[in-house]
Amino acid sequence: MSMTVQKRLMRELAEVERNAAAEFDLGSSEDNLLVWTAVLRPPAPSLYQGGVFHVSIRVPNTYPMTPPAVKFSTRICHPNIHWKSGDVCLDILKTAWSPAWTLRTLCLALLVLLDNPEVDSPLNCDAGNLLRCGDKRGYKSLVTMLTALHATPASASSSPN
Amino acid sequence: MASSAYSDFDVIAQEERVRDEIAASSELVSDPLPTSVLLDEYKENKDAFRDKLKDVTSKYDSFRRVRGDGNCFYRAFGFALLQQILHRGTEEQARKLYQQAVASKALLVAQGYTEYTIEDFYDSYVEVIALATGFPKPPAAYDYSTGIPVPVQQDANSEPPKQLPWPLTAQERALRESNLLAIFRDDPVASAVVYYLRLLTAGHFKTNAEFFQGFIEDGLTVSEFCAREVEVMARECEQVHIVALSAALDVPVRVVYTDSSDSTSQATEINFQEEGTAAPTVSLLYRPGHYDILYAR
């Protein structure tokens, strides 16, 4: 790991520990600073409220010049998140990444994405199609049901891969 | 729609391979080359573009190629600026550039940037400025082993402690220039310097938002424009970015434009920030979509 990445991630870690957020936990793996996990708890009035979503984050050696790679490891029903792989389609994870952002900013962006799906770039066509044809009620009940099934502490743990 | 056969992790690995291949095939900043190389490169062209290049070779005898990765303007500007300071700058200009570099982080933080996210880029920028000007690098504001801020006395207006032996001897100039070139060719420091120049550009846009709003299209606010077009690596720049960066650092920039429009056989020169006082003029060659560094005869 390069010194630049290490310095930067140490500071991000210190910042996260000093300044915890209610909507998510974020931390690095004990033995590898390049592997992080976020646990998102979307607050009301999110469609996903009550759900607890684990997200694995891998930081490239060129970070923060290039964005981290992100995967949901809890199943989630969302137009821009792949149902099976957990891959996320979000511009800031690709070409619009700014090196002045952090893994913490990223978690906030993921929470914003949950309730602001971009239906024109779907990774989950079924969810995307419901929204595209204006079936908000159907979409809402599908999300609520699948969140209860796969992402609540009571649900049997079901994760992609 | 993305295929599920490849994950983001695979894509990132692939992108890293592509980046490495590009890195292996072209330097971030090349050695100086005679401008006649450009005429050879376009010897098939019989149009106004070649006439303009001829015009360029009559006024500028050499140039340096800068990698065409979307950051070429900032990279060309940064290296050419420090080289101008070394070769033609006065002690006063060197001090001004150094002092504004040291003061710049506080200005960016006042613009809303989070200090610890811009700290590394600032450190790299101040490091190259210190290297070129000979002023000492201020101590880091963080203990890197713990990530905890340590209090540092930083007063941008205080006199730098070391007096310069200025003008520099030819030997000292050559030494500093070769060190600068090594840094500008070495990632991640080179990228960090480029990114800090982007932040300084964005900071100037935001400080003068009222003025720049008129130049921004698509109904974006100045902040949105910066987030989309300035603060992202590899996003190409337009003239308004040059206006902002040359004004931010008070550095005069001359861009020599070459293209194939046949209204004139002469390359058009545009001077940005003609009254700049922080450095001698930085000259850049523009070919459509790309900037390189030019040296006058």
From TrEMBL, chain A:
The lineage of its organism: Eukaryota, Filasterea, Capsaspora. This is Ubiquitin-conjugating enzyme. It comes from Capsaspora owczarzaki (strain ATCC 30864). Residues 4-152 form the UBC core domain. InterPro entries: Ub_conjugating_enzyme, UBC, UBQ-conjugating_enzyme/RWD. It comes from the Eukaryota.
TrEMBL record, chain B:
The keyword Nucleotide-binding does not apply. The keyword Hydrolase applies. Keywords: Hydrolase, Protease, Thiol protease, Ubl conjugation pathway. Residues 61-297 form the OTU domain. It catalyses: Thiol-dependent hydrolysis of ester, thioester, amide, peptide and isopeptide bonds formed by the C-terminal Gly of ubiquitin (a 76-residue protein attached to proteins as an intracellular targeting signal). This is Ubiquitin thioesterase. Its EC number is 3.4.19.12. PROSITE patterns: OTU. PANTHER family: UBIQUITIN THIOESTERASE OTUBAIN-LIKE, UBIQUITIN THIOLESTERASE PROTEIN OTUB. The lineage of its organism: Eukaryota, Filasterea, Capsaspora. GO terms for biological process: negative regulation of double-strand break repair; protein K48-linked deubiquitination; proteolysis. One of its GO terms (molecular function) is cysteine-type deubiquitinase activity. The active site is at D69, C72, H290. InterPro entries: OTU_dom, Otubain, Papain-like_cys_pep_sf, Peptidase_C65_otubain, Peptidase_C65_otubain_sub1, Peptidase_C65_otubain_sub2. GO terms for cellular component: nucleus. Belongs to the peptidase C65 family. Gene3D superfamilies: Peptidase C65 Otubain, subdomain 1, Peptidase C65 Otubain, subdomain 2. The record marks Y257, D259, Y286, Y291 as: Interacts with free ubiquitin.
